[in-house]
Amino acid sequence: MTVSVDAQRGDAQHGDAQHGDAQHWNAWQRSWDRQQTWYLPDREDRFRAMLDVVEAVAGPEPRVLDLACGTGSISERLLARLPGAVSVGVDLDPALLAIARGHFAAEPRLTLVAADLTDPHWVHRLPPGPFDAVVTATALHWLPADALLRLYRDLAGLLRPGGVFLNADHAPDPGIPALNAADEAFQRRRQERERAEGVLDWAEWWESAAADPLLAEHVVARRAVYGSHADAESRSADWHVARLRESGFAEAGVAWRNVSDATVAAIR
To answer: Could you tell me the CA-to-CA distances from 124 to 55, 73, 108, 114 in Å, in that order?
Structure first.
């Protein structure tokens, strides 16, 4: 087969464009991780602990459901750690899903699904189950209690017997008020230092995203979906443990925690 010089040039330009797009979305993925780490300095520790449990319970080739996946931060670490794993990422945010689709464009092990976890029929948008593990981080505190309880019941039905659910989220312990106050003050000082070094907070990050021509329309769509966030409700780890057991899980407990946050693990 003979390829013309013009066609060769066109193929090269197409390749350069694809490479440029990949670099663009990869940069946004790193930017999102950095912004989130500003709020959660031990974010990687909780991800590592989460994946330790996934591997311990489900083995080296799990089929994982990544709830409220955002840009795919957990799935990225899962697939790097366990090459035999596959993941289904679910989110509603058009902008974060756009970053995830760009960042994972060449990754066949990840399927991305747009779905609203408050919709009683959200599970019908998923590929057929069951899953070996369900993971989520810093997301479910936005759900009202009734929607979260329904979600827990849904997850019990999506996991195979013996599968594991892991939720890393804000879970303050009301029994340690002095320690909570000291940690909050310490984190404020850390954040002030990092802001002085140029780290973006949540609002600044979204302003930056809205100014990107490839993300701007997705940010507008996001605002139409969410408006302004309602107040989140932080619940204790004990609350989650009790509700998971009531929802059909055989056992539940804390797999990791720091002063303000915890990862609750539940076995189907």
So the answer is: 27, 24, 21, 11
Using DSSP, state whether 236 is helix, strand or coil.
coil
Tally of CB atoms within 10 A around 125: 12
| CA–CA gap between residue 184 and residue 180 (Å, rounded) | 6
pLDDT of residue 22: 87
Which residues are paired to 166 by β-bridges?
135, 265
Reported pTM: 0.89
The rounded distance, in Å, linking the Cα atoms of 257 and 167 is: 11
* Total count of residues recorded for the chain: 268
Q: Return the DSSP state at 109.
A: T
Residue at 69: amino acid letter:
C
The phi and psi torsions of 172 (rounded to 5 degrees) equal: -65, 150
d(C-alpha 31, C-alpha 192), whole Å: 18
Tell me the C-alpha distance between 252 and 240, whole Å: 9
Residue of 255, 221, 240 lying closest to 91 (CA atoms): 221
β-bridge pairing 86-91 and 110-114: parallel
CB within 8 Å of 232: residues ≥ 6 apart:
141, 142, 170
The token pair at 172 is 């303050």
Taking only the tens place, the pLDDT of each residue in 192-203 is 999 999 999 999
Q: Which DSSP category does 265 fall into?
A: E
Going 197 to 202 to 203 to 208, the CA torsion angle's sign is positive
At 234 the pLDDT is 84
